[in-house]
User: What shape does this take?
Amino acid sequence: MNMVDSAPAMHNLIGSESDSQRTLYPYVTGTSVVGIKYKDGILLAADMGGSYGSTLRYKTVERLKSVGKHSIIGASGEISDFQEIMRYLDELILYDNMWDDGNSLGPKQVHNYLTQVMYNRRNKFNPLWNSLVLGGVKNGQKYLGTVSMIGVHYEDNHVATGFGNHLARPLLRDEWHENLTFEEGVKLLEKCMRVLLYRDRSAVNKLQIAKITEEGVTISEPYALKTFWNFAAFQNPTAGAEGSW
Amino acid sequence: MFRNQYDTDVTTWSPAGRLFQVEYAMEAVKQGSAAIGLRSKTHVVLASVNKASSELSSHQKKIFKVDDHIGVAIAGLTADGRVLSRYMRNECINYSYTYESPLPVGRLVVQLADKAQVCTQRSWKRPYGVGLLVGGLDESGAHLYYNCPSGNYFEYQAFAIGSRSQAAKTYLERKYETFMDSSRENLIKDALFALRETLQGEKLTSSNCTISIIGVGEAFKVLDQETVKGLINEFEVVGEEPPADEAAAPEQGSDAAGPDQGTPAEPDVAPMDI
Assistant: This one.
């Protein structure tokens, strides 16, 4: 009798493990986001590619969004997870506004909230597969930080996700300074994005730049960078690599 | 025979549109020893009168630190006050865990008021028998709120609750216009003077009052007795010496023997006996 009773229970026990759905690997992903502080606020840059595995499947994915009045977010990694994160954030901001009491969440608060969300999800072995960059200005304070899919977080004067960490940040370490004007900041970001475009196969030549200052958020229309592919190394990439195809 | 038919539970209305149980709870606040609060642009001072329930006992704590940026002074049932303080501490800690920043005072006060309101709308519950003066600092400046057992809350420039608080309120009403630009020291001074008003002749000493302060660049703290003693002397907050006969028979029949002394209220004062 017990055998009969316990059989479905056992099945459920095993079943619950195998039935559960988790993100085991990302499907549609965005590549690097680069962010810098500049004189009046924060600038973020990201291209608009959405890769389906290694196929460049989508060309107009907006990966830079505003979060309330004081923050902007940039996401790389799983696009659908980013869309879910935006649902969380929009709800968070909505509830914050509903207090209607003059208090509002700043970039630091949003960054910390996201860190908790990311870390909580990884503890459930069900991570949100993203690296996020969060920037903002509130009460004259500039803020720029990042969170990874497992909850690693830090603040810095310039940050980048994914390939940007390897290709853009060395440039930023050399060229970034506190008093960059908006034009200089954009120029520096474009330099980073151009290098990424050349060397990161998932990058596409269509990008947006988001700006946040005390005045508010502006996210640029998509545009392309001028490129020059006639460098010798591009024309003959295997020169000096004997035996390579 | 002439028992009040409309006060057996909180949710029953009287034909006159009153909720007696809620009013009784508010009465409990009036019976507790006094607590006052006042604020300037940058500081909030909370102060309370300490009354021991008997010669042999200590007095109960009336002022609680909730967080670095929020403090609370209570009048009424101390036990309820402690429960609500614990709730407030929890909310502050949870908020700063999630957002790494202090919970805005106004939001905590709304949460607290909502909690109290629920007790007025459930037949199996009772209202909290405590009034709370919540003082705190956030990005919009210094705030002072009063939370009532009814679930109502109000923001004040200065306020007093508890027994004989009317005297303190009169004092505060006379002077509140100067508070906004008041210095830290003057705010404490006015707190001491307002507090003295509630003592009605009894002398204000460092052992029968508690003073706390919170301000810009200054985390909430309850001043220690030595400091209070110094301030009382400095400001010469002397009360009249109690008349000889009153001194000989202190406390008898006084309405100060309220709920937060743990002694049963005098039958002629308690609002609960109908």
The mean pLDDT of chain B is 89. The first strand of chain B starts at residue 35 and ends at 39. The beta strands of chain B are 35-39, 43-49, 63-67, 70-76, 130-138, 141-147, 153-155, 158-161, 209-215, 218-222. The radius of gyration of chain B is 19 Å.
